[in-house]
Amino acid sequence: MSRDRNKPENAGETLACNRRKFVIGAGAVTTLAATGFPFPTAAAETIKFGEFEILPLSDGHLMLPARLFAPNAEESARAAAFAAAGHKGDQIRRPLNVTLIRNGDEQILVDVGSGPRFMATAGKLIDDVDANGIDREAITTVVFTHAHPDHIWGTTDDFDELVFPNARYLISEEEYNYWMADDILSKLPEDRQGFATGAQRNIDAVKDKLETFKPGADVVTGVTTLETGGHTPGHISLEISQGNESFIVLGDALTHHIVSFQHPDWISGNDHEPERAIKTRQKLLDKMANEKTRLIGYHLPDPGVGRVERDGTAYKYVSES
Q: pTM score > 0.70 for this model?
């Protein structure tokens, strides 16, 4: 299988660095140099799911401005949702739950965390991987749900070396084309342009190992990519299937355990295509409630594993923890 060194292979229906400067303005998430803050690690609880093992790992957490959540909601309704979630103040703590899927020799990592160049409270995935005795060189596949900093900037370490050097790297064709477009900076507000240069830097780092795909393609047998665009144009989730049961790795399709479930029609300030993201949330929630699907969410309360239940005309998140 040949591969153009300057462009990733398009795998169709099957899936078989240069350092750049970046800046994030004051209106976006504050970028901090990684520090030596201690990060409490613990053995991940392995979830047995048919032939698969699912391990929720942690990259730490983010502190995000509360104003990014539901900017179109009525103040009283937003305040009630935040109170139900236990939020106080103008900053909201959001976990970073990275998923490892195992089946035999296949070890599939879904996203790679924030790395050393984003927030001091994040970039802890390497610590958790090592604490759980996971061999970084044994990771066979990395799937990017999308190319936001907290999902892709952990591709390389402090020395710009690949953290998972033997993996193949997969990203949806739409997501790749969006971030790698020559005019991407013109499509973003100034305070988000650093997201683009960071995405390009990390995608460039794996260009010789990168494959693109269209949603619906299998990563391996039993793990299928789902189109869940809106948060970013090419955002995908993964569905692990065993018999009549399934387990969905959401990425950022649903990001908040109260707002995303009880108010899926509220706009999020983090979504690139807000109206498309609303339709994605509604469709996904309906599917998971009907099929009683288990899920793991990147930003849901640690470790992010639970289910969806109907709650009147809306939904609610039910944690398994």
A: yes
